[in-house]
Structures are given as structure tokens and as C-alpha cells.
Amino acid sequence: MACCNKFLTRTAIVALLAGLLGGCGGGGSSMATPAPPPVPPAASNVMVASVDGGPANSGYNVNRLFVDVKICQPGSSQCLTIDHVLLDTGSTGLRLLSSLVKPALSLDKLTGATGFPLFNCAQFVDSTFAWGTVVAADIVLGGKTASAVPIQLIADPAAGRAPSACSVGGTEMTSAADLGANGILGMGLFRDDCGSGCQYTFHNGFYYTCSSASCSSTTGVKVGVAQQLKNPVPLFATDNNGMLLDLPEAGAGTVTGLKGSLIFGIGTQSNNQPTGTRVLSTNASGYLTTLLDGQSMSDSFLDTGSNGLFFDSSSIPVCPDSTGFYCPAALTSLSATLVGANQARAAITFTIDNASAMFGNASRVVLPNLSGPFGDPTSFDWGLPFFYGRRVFIGIEGQPSSLGSGPYYAF
Questions:
Q1: Each residue of 158-197: pLDDT tens digit?
Q2: With contact defined as beta carbons under 8 Å apart, do 127 and 183 qualify?
Q3: Domains of the chain: residue spans and CATH
Q4: pLDDT confidence tier of residue 323, bands split at 50, 70 and 90
Q5: Is 378 in a helix, a strand, or coil?
């Protein structure tokens, strides 16, 4: 994730029965007005994904994709719905602000091998980080449930201060104003946020536990896959091999917000069938290659958690008053080619506009031409503007589908 700082219905055929009602007053008869057709049920594998200004007191947010997330005490009906959770395909796992969860829900803490509480650190590419306690909750997304999933409570007072290995000079996210959201739902290419790297390494940078019973300090700890934060999709009973993000074009009429669909499963129902898509597999780290102006950026990725297209260019001027974005003198059109690990290619045309000018109207929260430098010549971060007007399939690692086994993108 890089940052600046409801339902699609399934097609149904309804048969209506109309009857003749006997009338009085002259012995006439009339046909009853048919009752309106019932509203078809929402497809269980679909939920709304929206771009808007974000939760209250979160500042000016642009190109942020939000969903509502319901969490429950595992196996119970004690639940809580959190709105404006950032949908982030660049991270893995659900992270919610502790202040929105406690004390409404009392979720059980997970513990390390020593029996002390388990903590999680998430570091993002914009030098921000999230620190908090790991607890278990049922995650409900639309009509789908993932049971007893480890999640992170961001800025949980019980977690204390983040260790220096987590903060590394970055900015800690502790509120909606910091996040621009009430939490982060990491649903990308991978099942777990660390995998085998955390199973066998104490100082893995992701997981920590108390050094002693007083918990005055923390230390790195090995954590098995079962206790790691997870992409909830593979834990669904069905429609669990990936997802489809379907967002409309971000034209002039949609600059103040838009709504699209997050559809679970690939080729599992009529609403997630791939047609005319090109599959670009990634390497084991989830990277593609971007070819642009003679550059070959081998560490490229698609990331709904990033609010612009981020790449390094020596020819596009950076904004003097909006650090981190480009400000060309005129609308600039560029062409790039995405190359998968399977050598499949997709040509991409995109445009960049002056960020300072776009930010001049605070009602504009959908900015399809927002872009900025990344700070790494090997990377191209294809953020949320890439997804506008596209149906993008995300195949999860090891999950078979009609397009093959993940990890891959297809569009």
C-alpha cells in the first residue's frame, strides 16, 4: 500500500400471478394490479466497493477504495460493522483501528510460544507503519464468512510502543486521520502476510511478543501460518480462488465519487466468468515487469491501496507545493507494457495531469490522472487509477481457477 497524505444483484426471473377479484357495484369485475416483483437477493459473492471522501475527521482523501467489513466474536452473533475500510491489494490481512473495536467487542488475543500476547507490525511503501495486537475474529464480507481469522488491532493501548525494528523512523498510523480510513483490508495475491518467512525466523519484522510477563519490552518471534494475518478469501467455503474488482470509468461525471463491485471467486459463478482477459502471472514475490521509455521495472505491482500511479521519471516535473506527485505543464499521455512472469504482455496507455491543480477542488476525490515518483527505478506501483474502467481478476497463490493457479493478474 502506498498512500497520500451495495450490492450487485444476481439475474432472476420472477413469475407473477394475477387473479380476478369479484367486484360489487354493478356486478362488474376488475383485474387486480399485480404486486411488484420482489427485489432479487444480493449475490452472496458480491459487495460494494466505493471511492469517496472517507470517514469523518480523516482529512482530504483521493483515490481511496473503501468497503464495509463486519467482524464477530468467533462463532457468535456478537458483531460489529466497520465502514470505510481501505481495500488494499498490496498487503495481506485485516487491520482495524482498535478504538473502533474495543470495548464493543472483546476479541481473544493470540499468544506466542511463550504464552505472551502476539503483536503485528505492518510497514508500507510510503514509510508509514501499523502496530498492534493480534486477535481472532470472524470476518464477514457480503455473504461470505471466514471464521476465526487472526486480525490486527491498530494502535491497541495494550500493545504499548512499537519496537524500533518496526518503526524504523517511519510515521505510525494510529487514527482515521493518519490512515484516511478506519482500517485496511489486505486482499491481494497471497494467503498469509509472511508465510514461511515467519515460521522459521525469530526476527522476521512482522511478529513480536513480550520479552517478559511485565511486557515492558518486546522481541521478535517465530509464528506459524495458522496464527498469521490472512487474506480471508481462501478461507471462504466457496468462491475462494480469487476475486474480481470491477470499477467504472472515472470520467468527468464521477470525480466526486464512484461505486463498483468486489466479486469473490474466478469462474465460479455467472458473475465472475473471465472473457477476453489476458493472464499475467507474477513471480514468487508478486511482481510484474513494466516497460516504459526504455526502462525495465522488474518490481512492478498492482495496488488498490496506492492512490496514484507511482514511478520514477526524469522528464516529468514534480509539484513544488504537493510533495510526492507530478505536475506536468499539460496533460501528458504515456504508453507502457506490462510483462508477466509467463511472458504475456499487455499494453497500457495512461495520462498524467497536474496534481496541484487537481487538489485545488476538495470535492474531487476521484483523480484518474494522479501520479508521482516512487523513489526506486526498479518499481512501478500501478495504484487505484489503473483499476478505473477495468475488470481486474486477482488469482491467489496456489488457488486453481479457470485461468490457472495464482499468483496472477488478469484483465
A1: 999 999 999 988 999 999 999 999 999 999 999 999 999 9
A2: no
A3: 46-235 (2.40.70.10), 274-410 (2.40.70)
A4: confident
A5: coil
